[in-house]
From TrEMBL:
PANTHER family: PEPTIDASE S41 FAMILY PROTEIN, RHODANESE DOMAIN-CONTAINING PROTEIN
InterPro entries in UniProt: ClpP/crotonase-like_dom_sf (IPR029045), PDZ_CPAF-rel (IPR056186), S41A_metabolite_peptidase (IPR052766), Tail-specific_protease (IPR005151)
Signal peptide extent: 1-21
CPAF-like PDZ domain location: 159-286
This protein's name: Tail specific protease domain-containing protein
Alphabetical keyword list: Signal
Superkingdom field: Eukaryota
Region (Disordered) location: 739-764
Any one Pfam family match given in the protein's UniProt record, by short name: Peptidase_S41
Tail specific protease domain mapped to chain residues: 372-569
Length: 787
């Protein structure tokens, strides 16, 4: 890429005015001006995430983004850099060759990057968007919420529908059908299920959509991926509750960053056809950023647009992300911080975390009829304005009040919980089981760079030969507090002994034709992590009186918590939703990794190690056992790389492993919930119905569970399934078609079984229906969330 030419082009454009007509034909300029107009027409009090509701033409946005040029040299360099960073992803050898227990398709991460590089070499990409879609597809196929790459232009536009879907069963036992969400929410009589999208069966369409066009669903169970496509209040609460400014969260069906055409056509079982339009939205103020053509977008989003005459110099990543923020749309900030309400949630909580819905996410309820306490935990995030302490105290209040009310069963609802602060997982476990010491085992992929970072950090924090002064020790210790990847002083061997050195932790050991560190154990009592210490008091509730409820998407810290509750205390779990099919479903299928690290963290570690090493004596370097060659071989700092790397680029750096199967990362083990439920439309409108049903299972009523779902493979405490659980990704999707379309007219809103099911032909007049009234109802609902 010739940077001078870029400059010249840019200034020519500024000097030589195009005719108005020419300017208007540039799709980027068109969407920028449409965005300004759309904004002007919207009177609502917008808050940050609602920027995506300032919408413009989807097809024009697609033309704009595909006009962003590609620089093959820069792209090729970036792939080399990414491959080195992604070698820290702990699961790559398992992703390539997964055990039969794994329910997604294999992916050869490095092989796919090599293919991309070959395509770049052959000049096979005509624009940057095509390249980024290929990178995105690798991330999508890895199904790991800790393995992310969100950079460049891909996130500039989001295409969204103003309708959503949901699958509900008529009575909780019948196989669910897929409906327009608004039909269910508005209790439309005789609502007809959707049987086709894009001329294909809904199942074929949704399976393909998940594989090719959806944003990464990051779940290892296809049933949980299915749930990602469905409207879910818990998920909206989990995503928006902790942000004062947020009130909108799309599901994966409703919105995607991958262009999926101008509209989506479909057909109801009653024969009526419909077409839902995709509109584009952006969190960037396109006018302010001056994204008037593809070149400007390339400079702003792919390069850090800061360069001098001879050399392209990129800004530090923090500054570049600030730059992106600086051009974000400023929408009149909502001045009210009134409580948001969430569809289907009761209005009479006994406990809410401070700033519930605008910082806090915890709420607690008592279903007096059933004597059931419900603790709703849709996230474990440290919120803006609501502290971890307020999170803990809300949970502790709930326990006190529920005890006092004498509830018989406690449902802990983890639906929509994508994780957060790992300390909360241990804290909460301790609140429920104060006298149990659970163990949580992990390990990393033993890449050579890790050995250097680890020897450096651990060598200084342990400071065995007193080679380092206290200021060096305290800087490094502070920087790597609670960092079990580089600092072997913060973890223990299984059984709790200390590591003698980083080398002892590092190993490496060969497993699955790959190199791994030895297995380590979290030592959370001694390192200041927990506030709720084990105090040996008796647990407030018996394990058999607690039930975990999930929608399968439970990830990261949520997984850690669920895992402690299951393996540490024997608490059972109920899962809801999934592909319409009588089968078990896993309860925690979001990432089961222990630790995510941003690429920027790794990059900064290179800088830190090199800067310190520069001032160290030979004796100090010998003490650390780090050579100058080791230093040269560290990961290249990202500020030398040509793409802007956003903060959401990261790797899962620590696997979780079970003592019963220490060779297989937990990510690949099959672990069914003890019972699976189907959604009913009543539950959608009133979530307490779901909670009571989960509590019924806790009371021993297995009849509420989907047939074939009770105590499925891997549901028992020390059951570890690394072989086939009896089904696979392919068979699960093949069997998705067992929904009986001929019964499709049974209305989910008529209450109970429809039985008779007048057969209606699919060929009745296929009039194209614009779902305007329904869509408006849906939009109105969305806006209610803001109030
Ligand atoms: C490049 O594109 C050509 C034509 O579309 C195709 O035949 C070839 O296989 C592609 N090469 C690579 C490496 O993708
Ligand atoms: C068919 O079902 C859809 C979805 O419930 C509904 O909107 C539409 O009005 C129905 N069409 C007829 C002809 O009843
Ligand atoms: C479902 O059934 C339809 C019609 O029989 C068929 O075309 C489609 O391939 C099936 N889909 C799946 C995922 O098996
Ligand atoms: C929803 O989309 C339809 C087209 O699919 C459109 O006619 C309608 O105006 C949209 N509603 C809103 C509120 O944007
Ligand atoms: C976008 O930026 C333009 C130019 O700076 C400004 O006039 C406009 O008000 C901004 N729009 C929004 C929604 O912030
Ligand atoms: C939000 O809810 C809490 C608890 O339900 C209540 O005390 C508070 O007054 C509410 N805030 C607003 C602004 O309505
Ligand atoms: C609780 O019981 C009362 C009286 O039987 C009934 O009116 C109410 O609908 C019940 N509430 C729920 C949530 O089931
Ligand atoms: C093991 O890995 C090496 C290098 O990555 C590869 O060449 C070899 O084919 C692999 N062996 C097996 C059995 O997968
Ligand atoms: C501590 O050691 C570092 C590196 O060896 C050195 O740069 C620094 O000046 C020392 N600080 C003090 C207070 O001695
Ligand atoms: C220092 O590193 C080398 C190469 O990694 C290794 O062979 C040696 O055992 C290490 N020495 C010590 C004392 O750890
Ligand atoms: C599960 O395994 C652990 C250690 O392997 C053991 O301590 C524990 O008792 C087992 N739990 C059950 C319920 O078998
Ligand atoms: C579907 O429904 C028809 C008519 O009710 C019935 O004859 C058929 O057996 C059903 N098929 C399945 C797979 O349930």
């Amino acid at each position: 890429m010739n940077w001078k030419r870029l400059l010249v082009t840019a200034s020519l454009a500024a000097i030589l005015p195009f005719s108005g007509a020419q300017q208007d034909t540039n799709p980027c300029r068109q969407v920028a001006s449409q965005q300004v107009q759309a904004r002007a027409g919207i009177k609502l009090d917008y808050t940050s995430d609602q920027k995506f509701l300032v919408r413009f033409d989807g097809e024009t946005a697609y033309k704009c983004i595909t006009s962003v040029p590609i620089d093959n040299d820069a792209a090729s360099t970036m792939i080399d850099v990414l491959k080195r960073y992604f070698s820290f992803q702990s699961t790559i050898s398992y992703l390539k060759d997964p055990p039969k227990s794994y329910q997604q398709l294999p992916v050869d991460v490095m092989g796919r990057f090599d293919e991309i590089k070959a395509k770049i070499g052959n000049k096979n990409y005509t624009n940057q968007y095509e390249l980024e879609l290929d990178i995105r597809s690798i991330i999508r196929d890895a199904h790991d919420g800790h393995f992310t790459y969100s950079a460049g232009i891909l996130g500039l536009f989001t295409w969204s529908l103003n309708e959503s879907i949901i699958s509900v069963s008529s009575d909780g036992r019948e196989l669910p059908q897929i409906f327009a969400y608004s039909d269910i929410l508005n209790e439309i009589k005789n609502a007809s299920p959707i049987v086709e999208f894009d001329g294909k069966s809904v199942f074929t369409y949704l399976q393909t959509y998940l594989k090719e066009r959806s944003d990464p669903t990051t779940v290892v169970d296809p049933h949980a991926a299915w749930n990602r496509l469905m409207q879910s209040s818990a998920s909206v609460l989990g995503k928006t509750g902790h942000k004062p400014s947020a009130s909108l969260a799309f599901n994966h069906f409703q919105a995607t960053q991958v262009y999926n055409g101008p509209s989506l056509r479909g057909k109801f079982a009653n024969g009526t056809t419909f077409e839902w339009a995709y509109m584009a939205g952006s969190s960037t103020n396109l006018t302010k950023a001056q994204y008037f053509d593809g070149q400007a977008i390339y400079e702003g989003r792919v390069l850090n647009a800061d360069y001098d005459d001879d050399e392209f110099v990129v800004k530090a990543m923090d500054e570049s992300s600030k730059r992106v923020q600086a051009t974000e749309m400023t929408l009149s900030a909502s001045t009210t911080t009134s409580n948001k309400t969430y569809v289907g949630y009761p209005t009479n909580p006994i406990v809410t975390q401070v700033q519930f819905g605008s910082g806090g996410v915890v709420s607690g309820y008592i279903l007096t009829n059933d004597s059931v306490g419900v603790l709703s935990l849709p996230g474990f995030r440290k919120a803006d304005g609501a502290s971890l302490a307020s999170y803990r105290s809300a949970v502790s209040d709930f326990i006190t009040k529920a005890k006092k009310a004498g509830v018989k069963k406690v449902v802990i609802d983890l639906s929509g919980n994508g994780g957060g602060q790992v300390t909360l997982a241990f804290d909460l476990f301790n609140m429920f089981f104060p006298s149990t010491r659970p163990s949580h085992l992990f390990r990393a992929r033993a890449v050579p760079e890790l050995l250097t970072y680890g020897r450096f950090v651990t060598g200084i924090t342990m400071n065995k030969n007193k080679l380092f002064n206290s200021s060096t020790v305290s800087v490094v210790t502070d920087e790597y507090t609670n960092n079990r990847v580089f600092n072997a002083d913060y973890s223990r061997k299984p059984g709790n002994a200390r590591w003698a050195s980083f080398d002892e932790f590092y190993g490496p050991v060969t497993i699955h034709n790959d190199s791994f560190t030895n297995v380590g154990q979290y030592e959370y009592d001694d390192d200041g992590l927990t506030i709720a210490k084990r105090d040996g008091s008796s647990p407030p509730f018996k394990a058999e009186d607690i039930i975990l409820l999930t929608d399968g998407t439970c990830a990261s810290t949520c997984f850690v918590f669920a895992s402690l509750m299951k393996t540490g205390a024997g608490v059972k779990s109920v899962v809801v939703g999934g592909i319409p099919q009588n089968s078990p479903m896993q309860s925690t299928s979001g990432t089961r990794g222990s630790n995510v690290r941003d690429l920027s963290f790794l990059s900064e570690s290179t800088d830190m190690v090199r800067n310190f090493a520069h001032g160290f004596t030979d004796k100090q370097m010998k003490g650390l056992n780090i050579t100058s060659e080791d230093l040269a071989n560290l990961l290249p700092p990202l500020d030398k790389a040509p793409f802007v790397v956003g903060s959401s680029a990261g790797v899962n750096i620590l696997d979780t492993v079970l003592p019963t199967s220490p060779e297989t990362p937990r990510q690949f083990v099959y672990e069914a919930a003890n019972c699976r439920l189907f959604w009913t439309s009543d539950m959608v409108r009133d979530i307490t119905r779901l909670w009571s049903t989960a509590a019924k299972y806790a009371s021993g009523d297995e009849s509420v569970c989907v047939s074939g779902s009770v105590d499925g493979p891997g549901s028992r405490v020390n059951d570890t399934i690394t072989d086939s659980p009896g089904f696979s990704y392919s068979t699960t999707w093949e069997n998705a078609n067992q929904t009986n379309i001929s019964k499709a007219d049974s209305s989910p809103n008529s209450g109970g079984n429809s039985g008779s099911g007048d057969e209606k032909d699919d060929d009745s007049a296929g009039n194209l229906l614009q779902l305007t009234p329904i869509s408006l109802a849906f939009m109105a609902l969305t806006f209610l969330l803001v109030v």
